Please model this.
Amino acid sequence: MTLQLAAEVDPTVATGRATQTITVLDLFAGAGGLTAGFHAASDRYRVTRAVELDTAAAATFAATFGEDLVYRGGIEDWLRDEDVPKVDVIVGGPPCQGFSMLGKRNSEDQRNFLWQEYAATILRAQPKYFVVENVAAFAKSQQFEDFTLATQSDGVLRDYAFEWSILNAADYGAFQARKRAILIGRHRDLPPVGMPEPTHVGRHRTVLEAFRGIPPEVAQTRLDDRSQEFFGVELPGAFRPFELHVGRDYTEISMRRFRAIPPGGNRFDLPDDLLAPCWRGHKSGSGDVMGRLHWNKPAVTIRTEFFKPEKGRYLHPTEHRAITHYEAAVLQGFPDTHRFVGSKTEIARQIGNAVPIPLGRVIADHLLKWL
Model:
């Protein structure tokens, strides 16, 4: 099969040469982290359609990039309801909860099989390249093996091949250490592209750099009551990132614990009278629980419950509180132009599930050399 180009030619050029627009499909788009990364890399990238099941996340994408771009629903419904456009690049991260290292893993979780819909989209859109991102554990899953088999000579994706690696976002300029499995696929008519070269090994960006200019004091604990209709549903927002600099109402015991934890410390620094019952008998285990972020290091992986110090090293380096949604968004690399929609919990989930924007940008830059 000979690959057909899906790119368009932009007639408005400053250099006298036609500028090729690179068309993109964003699957499992979430809050638009990958799209933000691709936009940051080049204005040649143009997302033609984004697909997202979660209504609040789809609304965040719509508020930031345009509601006409978003199909709010499951990918299986989208494949049934719409014609898949021909594009140059497909990006996306199928849900990973069934084989994530966090919580109870379930290899039969139906979300683990959404890679099949991703593959079906590749067959219809006939991209030149595709990018899949997921948790590092994905590389050891049955789903990864199935995806690999699909690209063999007798597989449904026989016209495609892919390369993969585990990349640490901190090595590519992100403010956090976040390891992700990255697959870069290509049509077999095209040469292998490899992985982007790390840009920040030995000089990781730090929490201090990320938080520079952010007021350490937090006065509010709630978002304001504005709302807007998206997809026929009234939702809170849209909020600019700095408007998410809100905290929580902590109990007195929580505040006493925070005050007792020194810079760089964690739950092991707490005196016995401040230990939770479940901690008293566990003197080993993760040192990140109830831990403070380090000023001079990247943050730990920003997950969906970063606002709960008992879930990891999410205490501010010096303030007696967890990091705010704004600080988490900055650690993920979201620009000031992003707009978030939903409740505090929904926005936290969007931030924690996103691909760090610097990592997405480096991948987009890397593909641009070949596109």
